[in-house]
Amino acid sequence: LEWTAAIDAIRALGPGDEVQLICHVNPDGDALGSMLGFGLGLRRLGVTRLRATFPGRFEVPVPYRELPGSDMLVAEQDAYENPALVMVFDVAAESRLGDLVSLLPTAPAVIVLDHHASNTGFGGINLVAPRAAATSVVAEGLLSRLGVPLDAEIAECLYVALSTDTGSFKFDLTTPEVHQLAARLIATGISPAEISRRIFDTRPFGAMKLSGEVLGRACLDVTAAGGRGLVWTYATTADLERYDQKPYVLESLIDPVRSVAEADVAVLVKQMSAGEWAVSLRSKGAVDVSAVAVALGGGGHRLAAGFTGHGTPEEIVQQVKDLLDVNLTQ
Ligand code: 5GP
Ligand code: MN
Ligand code: MN
């Protein structure tokens, strides 16, 4: 990893220099947590002209609204126009940056912190660790190399990022290092119980009812994925409207879908707009779903990936099944 280049670029910042932090569209806990946690660290280093943003609708999912450092968040149209430094968090490809991609070519320095195996290396300075469980692991690595001590505010952001991307320390890549980092974060005085309740175990009544309906219509195909089985379901914008819910309430709905014993692959198809769907793919191990996602224009990790689909949910799932058959017989 290009630690030295990243440290030099940050140390080279002058007093009036503007720093723009950006993360991926539809930000999750790792995108927001690593970005804001690192931003707080930059503040401790004396950086005052600091903004953070993400592309698309400026709507932070409710569970993440109270994150420390949220005061640096601005809508994408309020991003700095000519920042001295752009830092990019949890972004595998420029396509995940929407219109904010226009900041990259003119910025004197661009540092990318990420952990996706499919990362395209689009940054000037790339801190990409494909074996890291979360971008927050990379963010903490850079903070410690810059001599920024962890405090409770930085730790809360990084803990949210680490616990969301590891599924509360359950997923692949939950290494001794992940638990050692969690221990150092908790040692700052943050409350894992309080944070977990707020992030994972709190949702509106309508979101619970919506989950019930979406899970109730799931389909199981035990012959798909070379007989390893595929389970899938979908949620439409009409479903969200009926229960007066925002798209982010669907973020973790793939988890109960993936729990199905008869299927190695789980698919959740979430409508974004007419004919456009955000597709979440999960594998229990034998099947590489990132290969399918990449083939369909998306990306991600071996066991968790996604892409933007078009057509009906049935058509999208058929595309996934066809690609799984091709990949598994190769
Ligand atoms: P999720 O299903 O939780 O939205 O995403 C799972 C993984 O797939 C994440 O690591 C995410 O970065 C990646 N991913 C999801 N959707 C897309 C997409 O449309 N394009 C790319 N490149 N990656 C995606
Ligand atoms: Mn993410
Ligand atoms: Mn991540």
Helix and strand topology:
Layout: H1 3-11, E1 19-23, H2 29-44, E2 50-53, E3 85-89, E4 109-114, E5 125-128, H3 135-145, H4 152-165, H5 176-186, H6 192-200, H7 205-216, E6 219-221, H8 224-227, E7 230-235, H9 237-242, H10 254-258, E8 265-273, E9 276-283, H11 289-295, E10 299-300, E11 304-310, H12 313-329
Helix pairs in contact: 2-3, 2-4, 3-4, 4-5, 4-6, 11-12
The structure holds guanosine-5'-monophosphate and manganese (II) ion (2 copies).
One manganese (II) ion binds at residues 30, 90, 115, 134-135, 165.
Ions, cofactors and other bound molecules: guanosine-5'-monophosphate, manganese (II) ion
What is the H/E order?
HEHEEEEHHHHHEHEHHEEHEEH
Query: What would you call the structural class?
Result: alpha/beta
The tally of helices reads 12
Calculate the terminal CA-CA distance, rounded to whole Å: 33 Å
CATH superfamily of the largest domain: inorganic pyrophosphatase (n-terminal core)
Helix content: 25-40%
Q: Pick out the low-confidence regions.
A: none
> What shape does the CA trace take?
globular
Count up the domains: 2
